[in-house]
């Protein structure tokens, strides 16, 4: 069955919306698997699976003013042009006080979004990969260089990478030398998600946070449909609990690297549910604050 080609319950028009979803079907620099450009459509289709009522927070998502803008046309752009286009689009959203929610596309889209924000924000990256290479395959904007490009815009001290478990040796050593804050899944498995949240909070303090959620942070058993799967990942409960702990600080987020061609639907379903849950959590926290 084919459902409408917009995210479920994104029923507000652009002007009245507080949250704006947009798809960025970019798939040019992926190193291992292709087909990530199909993710926005699959995730939108998957979103129709769910009830509008959010069981945990007791809110009907139809109450939240959510708009789906559709996809940005980035297909034939070079990485540099793609990043500029996303930055300009995100800037327009921020100017109109909209909360941006991007559906990738590969991870190379994220620096474009981050560059639209003031450079005193923090970036929280949930990712199996460090993505801290200066360049990859002769492209500084490759999806393997995302953290590095973000660090061009904001202070490296304001970046946190959670769930990382893959890097090349030079990349790893350089990240340590530069003081990049990260917590790998082997440590998380030992210390637990509450302690991980505590340490990350101590690092990012009360800064405004942009969240980038690379679906490969989740274990491939739960999210096999991704560009570069990496075993020993987080489970979906830990991902949700972690993100919820920062919900009141979030100023935008993306979800990237879902690859439908390698999926039996479970990865897109998880991505759609995470978007719904994160929006619900942010809305819930902000409604609590406005009641104070
Ligand atoms: Mn990754």
What characteristics describe this protein?
292 residues, alpha/beta, Arginase, Chain A, two-stranded antiparallel ribbon, 9 helices, 35% helix, 17% strand, binds manganese (II) ion
Explained architecture:
The protein is globular. The strands form two sheets. Strands 4-1-5-10-9-6-7-8 form an eight-stranded parallel β-sheet, sandwiched between helices. The protein has one domain: Arginase, Chain A, CATH 3.40.800. With 292 residues, the protein is an alpha/beta fold. Strand 2 and strand 3 form a beta hairpin. 35% of the residues lie in helices and 17% in strands. The structure holds manganese (II) ion. The site of manganese (II) ion has 8 residues, from loops.
Show the helix and strand layout:
Elements: E1 19-24, H1 39-47, E2 53-54, E3 59-60, E4 66-71, H2 79-95, E5 99-104, H3 110-114, E6 122-126, H4 146-153, E7 159-164, H5 169-178, E8 181-184, H6 185-191, H7 193-204, E9 209-214, H8 236-244, E10 250-256, H9 266-291
The structure holds manganese (II) ion (MN).
Bound molecules: manganese (II) ion
> Would you identify the regions where 5 or more consecutive residues have pLDDT less than 50?
none
The name of the CATH topology is Arginase, Chain A
What is the CATH domain class?
Answer: Alpha Beta
What's the multimeric state? single chain
